[in-house]
Amino acid sequence: MTPFFITGMPRCRTAWLANLFTTEHTLCLHEPRAPARELVARYPGMRMGVSCSSLVFRYRKLADEFPESRWLLVHRDPGQVLESLTRFVGRFMTRRQAREVVARHIEAQMQISSTAVRHVWFEDLSRLDMIRGAWGWLLPELPFNELRVNALQRLNVQCFSPDRLSEGEVGVIVSEFDTLLRRELCGQLS
Question: Residue 95: CA atoms inside 13 Å, Cβ hemisphere, count?
């Protein structure tokens, strides 16, 4: 099955989008360590996606490896990216290093030009019509789930590094997230 890819600047909602595009029929991993080909083989029958800002640096390789794949490229104002990145990883990275990361991403994004890529602005990801359009682009075979989108928008999903957590802690976080999402969905259905 052909995977789909989501990328863009750091801090452009790739974690949130990975959650959105993970359903009972799809698995969209945020910043996986395994190569895309291995992920596709590991989960046969599942529609696989990868959502990761660093994919911009592997675009050409992945586009050659999966020529039928579709891409979503999220753009965000570089100044906003710099501020968000500095707040999020400020104790691990200087402002100068953060500027260099942003500059490398801008340069890499400028190299991406293809009809297989849909472009969307970060700010537009709060609009239901834009999210529906992104869904239709990446998963045209699956019906759009507006209830799921509304629940995820209220949860404010953020990225965290599982490397800093034990397996038990990751399990608790996943379980808590699943419980919150179910409560949100049940609340909307009643």
Answer: 4
CB 8 within 8 A of CB 14: yes
Architecture of domain 4-159: 3-Layer(aba) Sandwich (3.40)
Reading across the β-sheet that carries 117-121, which strands appear in turn?
Answer: 26-30, 47-51, 4-8, 70-75, 117-121
**Residue type at 157?**
V
* Amino acid letter, 21: F
Separation CA 135–CA 127 (nearest Å): 12
- Tens digit of each residue's pLDDT (9 = 90 or more) over 20-29: 999 888 999 9
pTM confidence score: 0.79
Give tens-digit pLDDT for 128-166. 999 999 999 999 999 999 988 988 888 766 554 444 444
Handedness of CA 97, 102, 105, 106 (dihedral sign): negative
Neighbour tally for 13: CB within 10 Å: 23
